[in-house]
């Protein structure tokens, strides 16, 4: 199993780039998005909204490394659709 995990991580790294750089970028973006929300509303993002945005940010950071990776674009559309449904229920 350890070998299988290593192979998956290597494959993902070749597609999406360095994990440490990606997670740092995601953290920076999410901090900024939360700060914008605090400045506008006086409170932090609700956990569900934070996570919904985080799902999109993960895909955006990955697309910065590989903008031609169609699966990430499809995921963004899917996450957007699911969140629209969540908000309209």
DSSP helix count? 4
> What is the domain total for the residues?
1
Order of helices and strands: HHHH
Distance between the termini: 41 Å
Helix content: over 70%
Structural class given helices, strands, pairing?
A: mainly alpha
Instruction: Please give the radius of gyration in angstroms.
Output: 15 Å
Strand composition percent: under 5%
Major β-sheet annotation: none
Overall shape: it is: globular
The chain-level mean pLDDT equals 96
Q: What is the strand tally?
A: 0
What low-confidence regions span 5 or more consecutive residues with pLDDT below 50?
A: none
Give the structure's gist in a few sentences.
The chain has 89 residues and is mostly helical. It is 85% helix and 0% strand.
Descriptive report:
This protein is mainly α and 89 residues long. The chain has one domain. It is 85% helix and 0% strand. The chain is built from 4 helices and no strands. The protein has helices at residues 2-16, 19-41, 47-65, 70-88. The model has no long low-confidence stretch (mean pLDDT 96).
Keywords for this entry:
single chain; mainly alpha; globular
SSE map:
Layout: H1 2-16, H2 19-41, H3 47-65, H4 70-88
Helix pairs in contact: 2-3, 3-4
């Amino acid at each position: 199993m350890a070998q299988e995990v290593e192979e998956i991580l290597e494959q993902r790294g070749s597609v999406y780039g360095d994990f440490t750089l990606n997670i740092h970028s995601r953290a920076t973006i999410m901090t900024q998005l939360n700060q914008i929300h605090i400045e506008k509303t006086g409170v932090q993002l609700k956990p569900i909204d934070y996570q919904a945005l985080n799902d999109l940010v993960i895909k955006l950071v990955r697309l910065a490394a590989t903008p031609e990776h169609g699966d990430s674009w499809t995921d963004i559309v899917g996450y957007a659709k699911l969140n629209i449904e969540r908000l309209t229920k």
